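Consider the following input, taken from an annotated entry for tRNA uridine(34) hydroxylase (Endobacterium cereale).
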Amino acid sequence: MTENQTLPRPEATGAFLVAALYHFARFERFESVQKPLQAFCDENGIKGTLLIAREGINGTVAGTDAGIARLLAHLRAMPEFSGLEHKESRASKMPFVRMKVKLKKEIVTMGVEDIDPNRIVGTYVDPKDWNALISDPETILIDTRNDYETAIGIFKGAVDPNTKTFREFPDWVRNNTGLHNKPKIAMYCTGGIRCEKATAFMKQEGFEDVYHLKGGILKYLEEVPAEESLWEGACFVFDERVSVEHGLKEGNHKLCHACRNPITAEEVTSEKYEEGVSCSNCYDSRTEEDRLRYRQRQLQIALAKKRGQKHIGG
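Applying the prediction step yields:
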């Protein structure tokens, strides 16, 4: 077996195996692969999302151990993805409603032309060496994720750009001349893919010593013991688990299905929280008409649950 096929399993337990993956490659035939790949996932009981584009593949999927193993082998059998790496965690219940294979212009949307991580990229730093780098006073540490993600967890001392989308990141960099004040730039994201483009962009903008966390926060939380960790909080994940913690154990956050923001157990007790309708993050920005529409949707979800079904809006 190859190294990619024998990644250590996290301590977290659960009936479903979750695989986060991405790979940048010239994938000119991506459109022709969509339907066969969708069919393969459906046949193997796999759910989640895979984005495919001319620049490669990105996504997170869940299923049985055997089903995920078959999918990874299927992808690595494609010449473009022979070097595909993935990260594993577990979920106590299926964290996705359905399977979607989507055609995209970019597998992670930055919106900057001619960014090619296969041509230029920052220096990868293994999780075991990350603490030393970000503790260096000559390093500026940047979180490349969006504000709803950084709200529940961040590395100690990191700069938070407070972006709503990754498209805002290039302008944030260009408008922050202070980033040139220190020689080293260290960057991180959930699983590593955003940093592939973010570090490529930074190098293109003239920054020389640019580093990024290999495997992202997920790999760090898997490999670095909690007592040695410089991570504070939980890591937002894009599935129904909402967050994971050290050892990739499922976190305690819920998701507000009105605004898609993660919320804590304390926020659930807020008078502004109503399941599927509002939370303290979105209550003041929604109208009563919005809330009425969300309540109707939530009623349909409850009725579907009573019938033993899962409403796709849930």
